[in-house]
Amino acid sequence: MDTILNIKAFLLVAETGSLTAAARQLGVVPSVITKRINRLEDQMRVRLLQRSTRRITLTPDGEMRLPRLRAAVGQLDSIFRESELSSAEIEGHLRIKSPTTIAIVSLGEVLTNFQLAHPKVSIELVMLDRSVNPVEEGFDIAIGALPTSYPGVIDEPLSAYPRVLCAAPAYLARYGEPSHPRDLVQHDCLTFATTGLSWGFESRRGLINIEIKARLSANDSQLLLRAALAGMGIARLAAHIVRPALSSGQLVRILPDYPVPEFWIKALVPRNRAERPAVRSLIEALKAHFALSPTLAS
């Protein structure tokens, strides 16, 4: 077990580049991290880290062994986790954050079934259409689709999250339909506030980034959908949100030959809470639910 702790200390230092940051995540003082890494280096008979007064970097031996050590710890953690989940009672309180649309469309059934299966679990679901750091804001699980990462937080991919460009026929009749992403600079655009004013598109020659003019910027996808239906501009929204309007002809898909890069819905979990049986069990339930449900991924 000491060897596993030593390896985990090394992996955290390699990830954070800091003895202090690694110690903070493990709840120990930096000298403990130093001792664990020294013991690991003695066991392996190689120098894994290059220490200087300014920074810590991996040695060539450290670089070479890092992937194998990470994989080994992952396999051991998986074995222990399976054993823990099979023997430990699932109980406790879970505080979860989710974007409003994902919560309404996808979470009701899975959370209800989870609580029916585990009656000693209580859940607080907070709907927020912004990215949050679950460590700083006190969440056990923060679900989101924005490409964010935070120190001490694990990403658990749940489902693909395709997005499309669309506009109302009335808007296109008035202003014309763009034939290339660069044409968007001449149009009114409706954008999600936290994604900024740079829209990316895939093409045969690689990624195209366009700075758009936002007529409306909001952190609520339903508000943007209503604005698009009213003919206010061109919106970039999740495919599952606009699918009914596209099918009915209320909206028209724009630039289908230039797909919007796909997001992934992820569960962000504080590292120090990730092995709680209730957290681990709910993450597995979410993965199974999204794998079987085409609602968001198509």
From TrEMBL:
Family: Belongs to the LysR transcriptional regulatory family.
GO terms for MF: DNA-binding transcription factor activity; sequence-specific DNA binding
Keywords: DNA-binding, Transcription, Transcription regulation
Pfam family, one: HTH_1
The protein's name: LysR family transcriptional regulator
Gene3D superfamilies, per database record: 3.40.190.290, Winged helix-like DNA-binding domain superfamily/Winged helix DNA-binding domain
GO biological process: DNA-templated transcription
Domain of life: Bacteria
SUPFAM superfamilies: Periplasmic binding protein-like II (SSF53850), Winged helix' DNA-binding domain (SSF46785)
